[in-house]
Design goal:
The chain has helices at about 1-20, 30-40, 45-50, 55-70; strands spanning about 70-85, 90-105, 110-120, 125-130. By secondary structure, it is an alpha+beta fold.
């Protein structure tokens, strides 16, 4: 009985020392990935870039513009999003579903996807740091 009481006290102290809300309950990273998917489906490259970290934005800008200029339509079917981890500064969102896209030249693709998207918190906002989301290519 004394051992259980000490464990309970220890857990209360650890909880009090944490000083912040449980980061695994913060769904903001998931919402950012959903926003990126929505921008992709709308083929809105500027919005896609706005959701990336500055480094990722600088590296991916021309690639996104080139790839999306060849895409006629894109849809993520039955997407599922799971917050895998979040330490308050870096978060990972697992995304799965089916990517369906068609290119301007008439080619089409439909394939299952499973991605792990890395996000970084900058000035209290989440930004996508990895290029883990599949973007249809014209190849």
């Amino acid at each position: 009985m004394r051992t259980r009481f000490l464990i309970l006290i220890w857990l209360v102290v650890l909880g009090a020392c944490g000083g912040s809300a449980d980061q695994t309950q913060d769904q903001a990273p998931v919402e950012r990935v959903k926003a990126f998917v929505s921008a992709t489906e709308q083929r809105d490259v500027e919005q896609m870039l706005a959701l990336l970290t500055p480094d990722a934005r600088q590296n991916a800008g021309w690639q996104l513009r080139q790839a999306m200029s060849q895409v006629q339509a894109v849809e993520y079917r039955s997407p599922e999003y799971v917050l895998s981890s979040n330490d308050g500064q870096t978060a990972y969102v697992a995304m799965s579903g089916v990517l369906a896209a068609s290119a301007l030249d008439g080619r089409a693709v439909e394939e299952p996807i499973s991605q792990l998207v890395e996000l970084k918190k900058i000035d209290d906002q989440w930004f996508i740091a990895s290029n883990g989301i599949q973007i249809p290519t014209s190849q």
